[in-house]
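Hi R.,

Here's the chain you asked about this morning:
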Amino acid sequence: MAVGVPEHEVFAAADTVLARGERPTVERVRLELGRGSPARVGGLLDIWWARLAERLNGETRLPALPSEVSQAFVAVWQQAIHLAQGVAEQALDQQREVLEAERERLATVEDQVRQDLAKGRQQVTEAVTKRQAAESRLADLDLLLVQRQTQIEELQQQRDVLLRERLDTQRQNLTLQQDFEALRQKHEQERTAQDSYLRGVEDRAHREIDRAREEGKAAVNQLKAASRKHDDLQRKLELAHSEMSQAQQHAAAQLARAETLEQQLTQTRQIPETRRKPRARKKTVSTTKN
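And the predicted structure, written out as tokens:
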């Protein structure tokens, strides 16, 4: 553990600063030493000021002098002590301010440390919780690993079975390939024969088509002749229809004329009967009178 700056080094540095005619302060003493914390140097500097007062109050150590000189020297010495005490009090005030600032800084650091400690405790609690969760997860993973190992063994057994089935399938596939090759060759032979047969059929079909074309041309010519004949018959039919229509009109006129004549004849027949009826009445009256 570090002790800090030794006491005699701080006292020697303060004496050196005072010998230069400067007031020993914490910063000047630390600058003279080149090291040391403000709190350590300030505490030792307070002790140095107290011992300085004791050293300055060393009237008994003066050599034998005349009483007037001794009294004058004592008066000057006391005045110097008084001034030194004022300077020491100012230095003490500065040291107190430094110590107060250091105390406040330490209080702030302490609060920060407490907060960090509380945060650290919380983090430790969270870490413990996470560790417990991790241990539980690890136990689950161990169980899962055992299950996976069992599944792997089962899969290996299934793989062995599948490998045997694969070998059987390969043998069957080889047999099927041989059968397929034999069937392919047979099919090739049949296809060659079929192609020859189809070429013969196509040749016959082409000949039949050519013959059908010739017959079609003849049929077209016959159809054209029949069409012309049909046109002639159509014209004759239309002429016959026209003549028949005229005959029907003439017959209708004759029929109307016959009906007119028949009506006239009927009217002519009805006139004598009308004339005979009064005579009959006269005969009836005469008969009644008789």
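The chain has four helices and no strands.

Let me know if you need anything else.
M.
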